[in-house]
Specification:
- The structure is a single chain.
- The radius of gyration is 16 Å and the shape is globular.
- Strands 1, 3, 5, 8 and 13 form a 5-stranded antiparallel beta sheet that branches. The chain has a 5-stranded antiparallel beta sheet with strand order 2-4-12-6-7, with no helix packed on it.
- It has no helices and 13 strands.
- It has 175 residues and is an all-beta fold.
- InterPro entries: Galactose-bd-like_sf.
Length: 175
């Protein structure tokens, strides 16, 4: 089964820079193919997506403007530990790895590089424990924040233009 878009409506987006008011960060999640986020020139540039609850994000899909794609991207991820002493505390981002999106106008999905060091006490031996219902299900890593840091751009001035971002999951259960 292909990963599906699970981007929550309340996802909070932050970006490193914006070229002008018409190409701001809200355009990344509006679903409109006519609007985009455009960075200022210079690298690195970044996009951060925070969700309000742990979510089984396994992939990310970006729609670039060809010629303005981020071609090398470091991925940072954050999780937390519900029900543990750190509840409500931002545990910070951990480097997951790199992705290399294609320089094209189409939707470009990439698997998230999930680091072994991602705090995972939420999962007891690979089992997700719902803190409200205390029910268990086998799951992938659950994420609270994804940060993409573009280190290289197809544009010689380091500009990045993104028409859309989708958080995807190959998890088939409810969450």
């Amino acid at each position: 089964m292909a990963p599906r878009n699970i981007t929550p409506k309340d996802t909070v987006v932050t970006v490193s820079s914006t070229f002008d008011k018409s190409s701001n960060k809200k355009n990344l999640l509006d679903g409109n193919e006519e609007t985009c986020w455009s960075s200022q020139q210079g690298l690195p540039q970044s996009i951060s997506l925070k969700v309000s609850k742990l979510t089984p994000i396994t992939h990310i899909a970006l729609t670039f403007q060809g010629g303005f794609s981020g071609t090398t991207c470091s991925v940072y991820l954050a999780s937390d530990r519900p029900g543990k002493a750190s509840e409500g505390v931002d545990l910070g981002l951990i480097f997951g790895g790199k992705i290399y999106p294609k320089d094209s106008n189409g939707l470009a999905p990439s698997s998230l590089p999930i680091p072994e060091a991602l705090p995972d006490t939420f999962h007891e031996n690979g089992i997700h424990i719902d803190s409200e219902t205390n029910q268990t299900t086998a799951e992938k890593d659950w994420i609270k924040e994804v940060k993409l840091e573009f280190e290289k751009s197809a544009d010689p001035w380091g500009r990045i233009v993104v028409y859309g971002v989708e958080l995807l999951s190959d998890y088939t259960g409810e969450f």
